[in-house]
Each structure stands twice: as structure tokens, then as C-alpha cells.
Amino acid sequence: MRIAVLGAGSWGTTLAQLATSLDHRVQLWSRTGPLALSAVLADAQVVLSCLPMRAVAGVIEQVAAAGLPPGAILVNTTKGLDATARPASQLWRSAFPDWPLVVLSGPNLAAEVRAGLPAATVVASASPEAARRIQQCFASERFRVYTSGDQLGVELGGVLKNVVAIAAGVSDALGLGANAKAALITRGLAEIIRVGTHWGAQAETFYGLSGLGDLLTTCNSALSRNYQVGFGLGEGRTLSDILAQLVGTAEGVNTASILADYARRVDLEVPITDQVCALLGGERPPQVALAALMSRRLKDES
Ligand SMILES: NC(=O)c1ccc[n+]([C@@H]2O[C@H](COP(=O)([O-])OP(=O)(O)OC[C@H]3O[C@@H](n4cnc5c(N)ncnc54)[C@H](O)[C@@H]3O)[C@@H](O)[C@H]2O)c1
Ligand SMILES: O=P(O)(O)OC[C@H](O)CO
């Protein structure tokens, strides 16, 4: 396949390397690289977006101006929300309604995939044919690729887990223990399902690789940038200090405030997100956020 990869950060370079090792012809575009976007897109059969959320709208405009080859499969890997709480694939869908669109998401820390450690992911699309083609394109002995028809659910699993991963980093920095971490991840999953199903995703998708799988990876690995942000907050550092030293993008920082604002407007309960927001905003220390979660009204688990 001829693959154009947009975004030469951690994930873009990793997927480009994986695709090259599978004998695809790969061209990697970045805003500072030597290749023109129009040349990279010219005969691409697959356009893989590995951009941070803040770059997506601007690059879509550039792709529209450069021209997207008819029939090229768009593959989104961005795990974020824009200011209006839309996930990245919805921006691609609005700009290119006639092109097949696939979301690729799962427990995929770039550094582990790059090192050739075994991993699995999900490719989801309204077009089963497009999902199958991308499955064939990226599957290897070390990278197992499943398909799904729930594109929204697969994307939201990857987007929403970032906020819980920040909370998990805080929990570990405070030394709260394995019981607390299990409670956080499990109630985090309940919060993700509440939000995801509100937006129309299927609940069962969140128990799969792109939901629970990615939640477990991101909440348990110091390789995760979102976890690193939370760990720093738990150590009492300021967000600006943490972000100044962070290598790469922690999408959960923006996702938390966008989600909390949205949830307030539609009266959706997101207690973990609310506390993560307060911590990110420096409004309260971690122990106060913890006390706020523990002293919520007693309720049924469902
Ligand atoms: N790194 C991972 O392990 C991983 C795994 C799966 C998904 N993701 C998701 O992929 C996305 C990208 O993550 P990453 O880790 O590669 O980020 P990164 O910070 O390592 O790289 C982002 C890249 O985008 C470029 N960029 C930034 N602003 C831009 C703009 N306005 N126009 C064009 N390019 C711009 C940067 O120069 C950089 O090359 C995120 O949404 C992330 O959640 C990351
Ligand atoms: O480093 P993070 O926190 O962006 O996590 C990377 C991936 O999303 C893990 O699947």
C-alpha cells in the first residue's frame, strides 16, 4: 500500500516504521519536514493522521487545499476532543464526507510498539471493507489488529481514558495503594461508559481493547504522558512546570476541561473528571480532591 503519515511525533514515526517493515511505501509528513503535503498525498491509498488534537483542524484545511486522492482511506489515531467536544474523526468526516474513514485505537504505547514488543489494537469503521483493508495493512506477528463496527466507541475509549490516567498518576504519586487504584480504574471505566453511551457509542465496546485495554495500559505505565502529568501533580508540582518538561503530548489535559464543561451543561455526572480538572487548574491539592471523591453521596454501584 502507499501510505501517507501525517505527524512525525512519537506515534507517527512508530506507525511509519511499522508500515515500512511490512513493505508498504510510506511517506512521513510533518510541518517542518522536507516533503510538501501535496507530494505526500498525491497517490496515497491510506492517509494516517497521527496529529495531536490541537493540530487536526489546521492540517485538515491544508489537506483539503492540497487535494485528497479519491478513494484514499483516512485513518485517525488522534485521541483528543476539540473545543466543541468533537473527537478528531468527526472533523475528518465533516471535511471529507465521501472518503472511507477508519479509527485505529488501542493499548499502544509508542515506545513499546517501536521496541517490537507484542501489542494489539482495533480498527473501527462504518465501512467493514475499509476496516478489513487497514487490518491487513498493519497486522504483523507483533501487532495484532482486530476490527470493529463501533467507530465512535473505539475512538472515545482512547480519548476518555487519558483523563483517568492523569488521576491514576496522582494516586501512585500519593502512594494510595492497589485497592485505591483498582477503585479508580473501575469507577473511571463507569464514567467513560456513562459519557460514551450518552454520545451514542455501544457500552460493550468499552470493555474491549480500545476501552478497558487502553485504560489499563495508560493507568499503569510511566511511559504514558497522561500518567506522567498526574504523577507530577501528585508530587505537588504545578501544571506549567510539568508541561514544560514533558516530552510529547498529554491530550488528557485539554480533554478533562472540555469534558467537564460539556458534562456540566448536559447534567452528566463525571466526578473523576471534575477532580482532575480542579487539580489541573491548581484549585485544590490532591488530598482534597481525594477527600471530595471519597465523601460523595453513598449510592448503588450501577
Ligand atoms: N505516543 C503514543 O504512544 C500514542 C499512541 C496512540 C495514540 N497516540 C495519539 O496520537 C496523537 C499524537 O501523539 P504523539 O505521541 O505522536 O504526539 P507528539 O507530541 O509526539 O507529536 C506530535 C507531532 O505533531 C506535530 N504538530 C504539532 N502541532 C502541529 C501543527 N499545528 N501542524 C502540524 N503538525 C503539528 C509535532 O511537531 C509532532 O511532530 C495524540 O492524539 C496521541 O494521543 C499517541
Ligand atoms: O502517552 P499517552 O498517555 O498519550 O498514552 C499513549 C497511548 O494512548 C496509549 O495507548
What is the CATH topology of the largest domain?
Answer: Rossmann fold
C-alpha Rg, in Å? 19 Å
The number of distinct β-strands equals 7
What is the end-to-end distance?
46 Å
Helix count? 14
Quaternary status: single chain
User: Whole-number average pLDDT?
Assistant: 98
* Helix/strand order: EHEHEHEHEHEHEHHHHHHHH
Query: How would you describe the shape?
Result: globular
Class per helix and strand makeup: alpha/beta
* Number of individual domains: 2
The portion of residues forming beta strands comes to: 5-15%
Q: Runs with pLDDT <50, length 5+?
A: none
Q: What does the model show?
A:
The chain has 302 residues and is α/β, with parallel strands linked by helices. It has 2 domains: 2-149, NAD(P)-binding Rossmann-like Domain (Rossmann fold, 3-Layer(aba) Sandwich), CATH 3.40.50.720; 152-294, Orthogonal Bundle (N-(1-d-carboxylethyl)-l-norvaline Dehydrogenase, domain 2), CATH 1.10.1040.10. The chain has 14 helices and 7 strands. The protein starts with a strand and ends in an 8-residue tail after the last helix. 48% of the residues are buried. Bound molecules: nicotinamide-adenine-dinucleotide and SN-glycerol-3-phosphate. Residues 7-12, 30-31, 50-53, 55, 58-59, 77-80, 108-110, 248-249, 251 line the site of nicotinamide-adenine-dinucleotide. SN-glycerol-3-phosphate binds at residues 79, 107-109, 158, 162, 165, 214, 217-218, 224-226. Substrate binds at residues 79, 225-226.
